[in-house]
Amino acid sequence: MNILKTDFKKNKYIYLMVSIVVAWYIIFAYIPMYGVIIAFKDFNPGRGILNSPWVGLDHFKSFFIDPNFRRVITNTFLINIYDILWGFPAPIILALLMNEVRSKIFKKTVQNLTYLPFFISIVVVCGIIIDFTSTNGLINQLLSHFGVEKTNLLANKDLFRTIFVGSGIWQGIGWGSIIYLAALTNIDQQQYEAATIDGAGRWKQLLHITLPGISSTIMILLILRMGSIMSVGFEKIILLYNPLTYDTADVISSYVYRRGLLNADYSYSTAIGLLNSLINFFFLIGANWLSKKYSENSLW
After folding, report:
1. How far apart are CA 297 and CA 218, in angstroms?
2. Which residues are listed as membrane-spanning (predicted)?
3. CA-to-CA separations, 157 to 80, 120, 138, in angstroms, rounded
C-alpha cells in the first residue's frame, strides 16, 4: 500500500490522464452493456428494460429461421474475407515500396496523396463512388472507349462487393501503412549493410530482413482484424446498396439497422448484434491461439 501511495504521488499526473480514459470506457463501453439483456426480452420502451417480459432465446431462434439469415451471414463473411485477402496486404505492400524509395520529395508526395482519402467523410466518399459508377460516370465513360456498354455499376449485384472492397482499400491504404512504416524504422540498419556485403540484393533483403523484422506487427494486426471478421460498418453499406443488390450487399449491420431503427424491433436487432459480437470474440480467441502456437506472436 505504501508503495502504491508513493507511486501515486510521484506519477499523479499520469494517473489523472489514465483515469479520464478509464472513466470514458466505463461510461460509454461497460455501463451500456446493461442494455444487452433486452436481447432476451420483448422490449417495450413504455415499460422499460426491467418491466418488459422475458422471452429467453426466442429472438435468437427467430433469427436462425429468418429467410434473410443465410444472406446476411454469407455477405458479411465474404466481404470481410475479400477485405482480408486484398485489403490487409495492401498497406503492407505500400509500406514496403515506400521503404525502398530514396527520393524524399517523391515519398512525401505519395504519402500525402494516399493519406488524404482517409480523412474524407464517408458520405462524400460514397457520393464520389455513386457518381463515378453511374451510367454516365467517369468509369463508364472510360470503359465505353473499349466497347463496354454503359450501365449503372452499383445496380449490378455481382459488382457490389468489388466496388465496396476496392473503394475501402483506396480510402484506407495510406493510413494503414503508417504503423508498418513505423515498424520498418525499428529494423537494425546494420543487417542491411551486412547483407549488402554478402552480396544480397534488395529482393533477398526484403525476404530475409524486412519481412521478418515486421512479422510480429503483421501478426498482431491480423489477429485484431480476425476479431472483426463478422463486422461491416452499416454506414457505407446503406449509402451504396439498394434493393437490387440486397443479395450480395445486405450484411448483418445493415439488417440490424433496418430491423432495429426503421422497424423499431429493438430486442430482435440486439439479439443479432450480440450473436455477431460473440462470433467475433471466438474468431479473435481462435486467431490468437493459432498465432501463439505457430508464430509465438499473440495478444496475451
Report:
1. 10
2. 12-40, 77-97, 118-139, 159-185, 206-224, 266-290
3. 17, 26, 20
User: What confidence tens digit (pLDDT) does each residue in 100-151 have?
Assistant: 888 889 999 999 999 999 999 999 999 999 999 999 899 999 988 888 888 9
- Put simply, whether the predicted model's pTM sits higher than 0.85 gets the answer yes
* Number of structural domains the chain divides into: 2
Q: How far is CA 175 from CA 72, 88, 116, 199, in A?
A: 29, 12, 9, 34
Tell me if residue 54 falls in helix, strand or coil. Answer: strand
Cβ neighbours of residue 297 closer than 8 Å, sequence gap 6 or more? 215, 216, 219, 220, 223, 291
Hunting for cell 525502398 — which residue is that? 100
* 127 and 159 both lie in a single domain: yes
Give the domain extent around 13: 1-55
Does one domain contain both 47 and 78?
Answer: no
Quick check: is 299 in a domain? no
In angstroms, rounded to a whole number, what is the distance separating the alpha carbons of residues 201 and 187?
17
Q: What is the pLDDT of residue 113?
A: 93
The answer, yes or no, to whether residue 8 has pLDDT greater than 80, is no
What 8-state DSSP symbol labels residue 245?
G
Same domain, 24 and 46: yes
CA 111/CA 269 separation, integer angstroms = 41
3-state secondary structure of 44: strand
Same domain, 159 and 188: yes
* Average pLDDT of the residues in 72-98: 95
